[in-house]
Write a structure and sequence with these properties.
The chain has about 250 residues and is α+β, with helices and mostly antiparallel strands. It is about 25% helix and about 40% strand. The strands form two sheets. Strands 6, 7, 8, 9, 10 and 11 form a six-stranded antiparallel sheet that branches. A five-stranded antiparallel sheet has the order 1-5-4-3-2, with no helix packed on it. Helix 2 crosses helix 3 and helix 2 crosses helix 5.
């Protein structure tokens, strides 16, 4: 192990791939691969340049529970709120995603311990009546598309890295049993990011709508609601307008 150097830093599981012996992690960037050998005491690394046209990401199975709601404001069919949450997240599979086009060109299983986090979050809760008005499947697709947009827009308004603020949609939130999108700080105890998101939520939602509407795609693409052709673009716009107190339907 003499060719490894000691490395001590916190890492997020969605950056890493694990080998069949559950000891070697790797992280791919544009021109380098970082290898981390994990033992019970230390983390080591080495790196070398390679030519790759993709990066790796992971699907996280996230369970989020609201512990306390500190602030909220109501609209006709939605609620904006902020408070303390408990998050349990586990990386389930990794994906190889091509640069520029964001195509998924491969995947595989990974085995990492569950991440437990007590932090703060802002969230957008939608009335359960929408499930009947729009349809359960359409609401779910709209939540996923809107979460994709907010993951890119919200960090700009709190001046943080996108990895510092995580966005997850839930068809039925534990605390309210309603469709909800959570934006939570990825740091223990929170560092004020989601609180600022809550304060700026209307502005963030307005900018998110402008971003989707201005995108030239027809039904969705990686630049707005994600790579999809199932009508998620219109559904995300509908939910955005509802979150801002507007109409259920897109004109």
């Amino acid at each position: 192990m003499t060719d490894f150097q000691r490395f001590s830093s916190y890492f997020y599981p969605d950056f890493w791939l694990k080998d069949k012996n559950n000891k070697l992690f790797s992280h791919y960037t544009n021109d380098e691969v970082y290898l981390f050998n994990i033992d019970s005491i230390s983390i080591y690394y080495r790196h070398y340049k390679v030519q790759v046209d993709y990066y790796t990401d992971a699907n996280l199975a996230v369970s989020l529970k609201v512990l306390e709601q500190d602030q909220s404001r109501l609209h006709a069919q939605s609620t904006l709120a902020y408070g303390e949450v408990a998050v349990n997240a586990m990386a389930t599979i990794f994906k190889k995603i091509k640069f520029e086009t964001h195509e998924n060109i491969g995947s595989g299983p990974i085995h990492l311990p569950e991440e437990e986090l007590h932090t703060n979050a802002a969230w957008i809760g939608f009335s359960e009546a929408l499930l009947g008005e729009i349809g359960t499947e359409d609401v779910e697709r709209g939540l996923v598309g809107l979460a994709h947009v907010l993951q890119h827009v919200a960090p700009l308004f709190v001046m943080c890295d996108p990895m510092d603020l995580h966005v997850i949609p839930q068809r039925k939130a534990v605390h309210s049993q309603e469709p909800t999108i959570f934006l939570y700080d990825r740091y223990p105890g929170g560092i004020g990011l989601s609180e600022q998101v809550y304060k700026e939520m209307e502005t963030i939602l307005t900018q998110a709508e402008r971003m989707i509407v201005s995108c030239p795609c027809e039904s969705g693409c990686p630049s707005c609601v994600g790579a999809t052709d199932d009508g998620s673009k219109g559904l995300a716009i509908t939910l955005l307008r509802i979150a801002q107190g507007g109409s259920t339907y897109v004109s």
